[in-house]
Amino acid sequence: MMALEQIPKKDWYSVLGADPSANMSDLKQKYQKLILMYHPDKQSTDVPAGTVEKCIQKFIEIDQAWKILGNEETKKEYDLQWHEDDLRNMGPVDAQIYLEEMSWNEDDHSFSLSCRCGGKYSVSKDEAEEVNLISCDTCSLIVEVLRYN
Ligand SMILES: [Zn+2]
């Protein structure tokens, strides 16, 4: 399986000056306020060179943020991606393990691995195709799943 190319991710919430827990109407309010503030038509022309460009840049950014966060579907997708990054940042990833080294459970068609806390990392065969990080069902440790090429 080919790894998806990692595109640099932006914190679109902070572009809107919002918290990831903000609800849709909060986000909308912030967006509307900012988009007015940075709207190219609202800028005076006698400002130092470069300022207008910066505003336009910002305006575009705010618009992009809203395109992603203002739509339930894309917001959900973005939140999921962000969550995986969060897990990674929250880390530390306790171990890297090859999927093939995990125990295969014929009963429920899943792979599992014991955590040192006594809990269990577990991932179903289908999920294993998709996920890279698995968190322990008991503690907060995370393992990264690798695959033989
Ligand atoms: Zn654990």
From TrEMBL:
Subunit record text: Monomer and homooligomer. Iron binding promotes oligomerization.
Q: Is-annotated flag, keyword Transmembrane?
A: no
What keywords sit in the KW lines? Cytoplasm, Cytoskeleton, Electron transport, Iron, Metal-binding, Transport, Zinc
Protein name, per record: DnaJ homolog subfamily C member 24
Q: Which residues form the J domain?
A: 11-82
Q: Name one GO biological process term.
A: protein histidyl modification to diphthamide
State the organism named in the record: Microcebus murinus
Q: What does the record give under GO molecular function?
A: ATPase activator activity; ferrous iron binding; zinc ion binding
The annotated pathway is: Protein modification; peptidyl-diphthamide biosynthesis
Query: What Pfam families does the record tag this protein with?
Result: DnaJ (PF00226), Zn_ribbon_CSL (PF05207)
Residue intervals of the DPH-type MB domain: 93-148
Q: Which PROSITE patterns match?
A: DNAJ_2, DPH_MB
Subcellular location field:
Cytoplasm, Cytoskeleton
Q: Which SUPFAM superfamilies does its entry note?
A: Chaperone J-domain (SSF46565), CSL zinc finger (SSF144217)
What the entry lists under PANTHER family is as follows: DNAJ HOMOLOG SUBFAMILY C MEMBER 24 (PTHR45255:SF1)
> Record's family?
Belongs to the DPH4 family.
Gene Ontology CC terms, in alphabetical order? actin cytoskeleton
